[in-house]
Amino acid sequence: MIHELMPRAAVREQGAEAFRCGRSADDNPHWPPGTDAHIEWLAGFKDEQYRDFNPRAA
């Protein structure tokens, strides 16, 4: 699987980009759920989704 060769940051960026393109969290291409790639993609998606609602401490 190609996602096993990708850095975690790249998988997270894919998730963030999916949110920016208007896709849903159910569109996660990394299966099965629970794998590192699935979780990283979802983390990137959720980080982008809640960026304005949950500002990070400086």
Question: In a few lines, what is going on in this structure?
Answer:
This protein has 58 residues and is mainly alpha-helical. The chain contains 2 helices and no strands. The chain has helices spanning 8-20, 36-49.
What features would you describe in this structure?
The protein is an all-alpha fold and 58 residues long. It has one domain. It has 2 helices and no strands. It has helices at 8-20, 36-49. Helix 1 (8-20) crosses helix 2. The model has no long low-confidence stretch (mean pLDDT 88).
Distance between the termini: 37 Å
Shape type: globular
Decide which structural class fits the backbone.
Answer: mainly alpha
Rg, Å, rounded: 11 Å
**Beta-strand level of the residues, as a percent range?**
under 5%
Enumerate the spans where pLDDT stays under 50 for 5 or more consecutive residues. Answer: none
Can you summarize the main beta sheet? none
User: What's the overall average pLDDT, rounded?
Assistant: 88
Order of helices and strands: HH
Helix content: 40-55%
Tell me the number of structural domains.
Answer: 1
Number of helices: 2
